[in-house]
Specification:
heterodimer; A: elongated; B: flat
Amino acid sequence: MEWETVIGLEVHAQLMTRSKAFSGAATKYGAEPNTQACAVDIALPGVLPVFNKEAARMAVKFGLAIGAAINHRSVFARKNYFYPDLPKGYQISQYELPVVARGQITIDVDGAEKVVGITRAHLEEDAGKSLHEDFHGMTGIDLNRAGTPLLEIVSEPDLRSSKEAVAYLKKLHELVRYLEICDGNMQEGSFRCDANVSVRPKGEQKFGTRAELKNINSFRFVEKAIEFEVERQIDLIESGGKVIQETRLYDSDKNVTRSMRSKEEAMDYRYFPDPDLPPLVLDEAFISDVKKTLPELPDAKRARFMKDYGLNAYDAGVLTGSRELADYYEQVVRESKADSKIAANWITVELAAFLNRDNKDITASPVTVAMMSGLLKRLADNTISGKIAKEVFEAMWNGEGDADAVIEKKGLKQITDTGAIEKVIDEIIAKNPKQLEQYRAGKEALFGYFVGQVMKATQGKANPAQVNELLRKKLGA
Amino acid sequence: MSLDREQVRKIAHLARLHITEPEAAAYAESLSRILGLIEQMNAVDTAGVAPMAHPNEAGLRLRADAVSETDQREKFQKIAPAVEAGLYLVPKVIE
């Protein structure tokens, strides 16, 4: 039988506020355990939550970016469960009335566009961390993360493959970083994803029973976890079994998902409006103020890069992958006045390879905008050839100074003096009478041999275009 | 609508409350009476009436995003039953 996969994703994005959602404790990652957990976060009796305006602003910013309606009135509810990572005995979340209503984003899979619905996005607080290493048979609790504001972004079950799921996730990741509402660090857990996965016979309208996959902390794992789970469900059904609704944990070491706890009693959370918190009321003025802070969004930037810089979709996509990279590119084009496609090439190929190799972000690139611009200028004015430019680039990366300094120090200046190049060519021709004879007898492939000899003799510094031109003249004579 | 003792025991378990068998019976009765009152309210036609989330009609007060709390771990952990390496220790929880 042919099966169809149905996926919906729930993303938890930690909002980049300085302080917590409901308390004035700091949210900085990596602090000593419990040094950023105040009386509200550890739920001492008598404390009251006061909501962070910035978290509301960020949620609205997201809603506006996905074309969603913003609910002027949203309500915080208590989601009740007992687990020591939230000592109140409940998580403050939004249930019936979330702040962001239905919106959508467009993804691109293998060149085809697809609109993915976003059901809602709601505000809630993060839980603390449990450390299960041995503390004399006890569990250690760090509540620094408890109360950090989260935006939970729930997609419609519109995704039909692990590939689409990853494309959606990457798009969302790019968006929250553009909006500067979440740092997107998956390693540190600031951008987390749960996947609801089910299968159904192709053509069937009704959804199959779904399993919820948790603990997926990289794009690659999302793909692998979904693929494993789809296979598991199909095998199960085809061998006469039934999928049960449950939460499954993805184990990246073994690449399997395993049952965590029965989710059949999901209703047990007993949500009710939090009596400590009146409705979150956001008026039109608040929303339009937020609207003014919206940056150019990824799709718009991509389209502009293609139009203004004559880039293809792929290069425009890579360069607009983050705001920082896009800014770097635009500054380089502006400063170097280089051809926009050549600049794009240097950034997407050479710079990207080095960043990738050293696992560095563009903001930490040792080759600054000024240095990259300097290099492109020397390339444009023929001081150096493309091949030498790569050598200069590597030297700049290794901290040997800017392009001019490297060229000077290493004596890499291109030889453009026709007389000097001619002299080298004459020497090479004199040294290779046999090859010359063969070339003149019609073995044209030997032209490359002569070019190579000239470049070798000049340590690659002769201007390649001039070498070609002069060689042709001399060999033909 | 009324609650039976089984439902009361389940609710008590979810709230981590220990109740005895006679208590379960008494709660089943009193909680059922509350539900009866709610049923009575349900009978009122409220079409066009906005639900009240809070008796205080005011909206949520918002605070500026600033860190106002200092580290008081030492004080808090003095009253905790068990701590180690800055962590609060609790009976083992395993997923």
